[in-house]
Amino acid sequence: MLEFLVERMGFTVFGIEANWPESLAINDYVLNGNGDPAEALAGLYFWTWNTKEVLDMIQWMRRKLFRVQTGRRREEGGTA
Prior knowledge:
Distance between the termini: 24 Å
Order of helices and strands: HEHHHE
Radius of gyration: 12 Å
Number of domains: 1
Number of strands: 2
Low-confidence stretches: none
Shape: globular
CATH class: Alpha Beta
Largest sheet: 2 strands, parallel
């Protein structure tokens, strides 16, 4: 679903319910390739997100460099 929304519908924002400071590690991985995505995901302290499927999604976002054709960057962010 996320791939469809990004690639076909032009969505540029992804939000996840998580602690803001801990979610920054995922954002840094997606945008800059820094860190270990599995460790960043485990650091969210939300067991519901700590799954292979969510890890695969984070890695997909990184592979795509999570950019749109215009070059605008997308950012993932947590909500408190």
